[in-house]
Amino acid sequence: MVDYWDETRSALMGVVEKWSVRSHLLPPNAHNSTKYDKDGIDVLFLNAEERRMANVTDPALVERVFREVEPQGSTPTGMVLDELLRDYVERVEHAKQTRERVKPLLVLVLTDGRADDPDMVKDIIVEMAQRLDEVRAPPYQLGIQFVQIGSDPDARAFLQELDDDLRPQLGVRDMVDCTPFEGEITPDFILKAALGAVVRSIDG
């Protein structure tokens, strides 16, 4: 990610700007409101969880926090996903009992390498998929979109395995998608991946 840090920062700033503008153009109860959330987006760094930003609608906040975080160290994807998804799925399970509605969640993972804890990544995804199946959550309740930054072949093979193999091998819902690197990182590249995952999950 080091080689693409500035490019990723600029792309995410563009995503926040476009997301904010388009969400505020939506009428109340618009059919595509799942695509553009008026609460903005949350930004979380794998190696700097204390820099987590919630409900971001200002691109300047993205620029500032990117300048405060140095891209280095490990890639603890499984550990961070465990913390994020476990809390969310528990809310969905509780809501099933109380008949409340939990807003669908799309987790967009931008990564340049294979996770340091690949078995944990698989285990947490499978466990959460099984638990959502048990409470009969809709297919669009949770989606995980991995976006590869860079062309590392090992990373691509691992992400493709998450995308293609979990459902046929283990029989769990298909809630993982992977977008391979296309040579450059732009707001449209990231938005295309995010919105493609939303449409895919709604279509089943």
Give a quick precis of the structure.
With 204 residues, the protein is α/β, with parallel strands linked by helices.
Structure description:
InterPro entries: vWFA_dom_sf. This is VWFA domain-containing protein. It comes from Rhodotorula paludigena. This protein is an alpha/beta fold. Helix content is 50%, strand content 16%. It contains seven helices and five strands. A three-stranded parallel sheet has the order 3-4-5, with helices on both faces. A two-stranded antiparallel ribbon has the order 1-2. A hairpin with a 2-residue loop joins strand 1 (41-45) and strand 2. Helix 1 runs antiparallel to helix 2 (59-68) and helix 1 (5-24) packs across helix 7. It is globular. 26% of the residues are buried. The model is unreliable at 22-36 (pLDDT under 50).
